[in-house]
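Quick one: structure for this chain?
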Amino acid sequence: MDIKPLQQKAVMFRRDILETLECAGSGHPGGSLSAVEIMLALYGHAMDHKPSDPQWEERDRLIVSKGHVSPVVYVTLANFGYFPKEELKTFRKFGARLQGHVHTKVPGVEFSTGSLGHGLSFANGIALGARMRGRDFRVYCLMGDGEIQEGSVWEAAMTAAHHKLDHVCAIVDYNKVQENGPVNEIKNLEPLGKKWQDFGWHVFEVNGHDLNDLIGALDEFKDIKDRP
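Got it. Here's what it folds into:
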């Protein structure tokens, strides 16, 4: 596919994120900027979704487990038509629905997050429910690298493999920085890919800012059977 339009959107998204944060006077720029291409690969290519009908039953779901990156989530949803871009100026304002952590009051947000480490379990539950109802949509879960230092993530990883949830895709935004410093100094994650493989997952390691890499991995994910 021609990724030039998505590359152009990536520049625009970064501008919109910075303007949104400037209006609010606070927020999380780092984790938002590091996830721009991930969000574009999902909403611009991989996911089936309808901005005109956010509750469409057959839509793919995205669980943003690292809920503090709300700026990139809101900018993505606004640019894809879920709500007017003008509303980005209300980010973190009292009484506004665009709060500092993503919330289901916002069209397109599937799960209110804030406390880290729970998104993958929620994604598993959605996928199991879909299987029971004979639904075929996919569930994506975006996590931070600092977040996966939490034990609940690995419980969820083991559960997904046990139940062969091949419609679950966990995406770790491995930007190597967390709130209190470099990830490898707080709690080293390496070898990260091997850890996920040992838990029964099919693993892709890609450049998170390369749209070709991301799209290729997301396309290949759809062909994998019997493992997340």
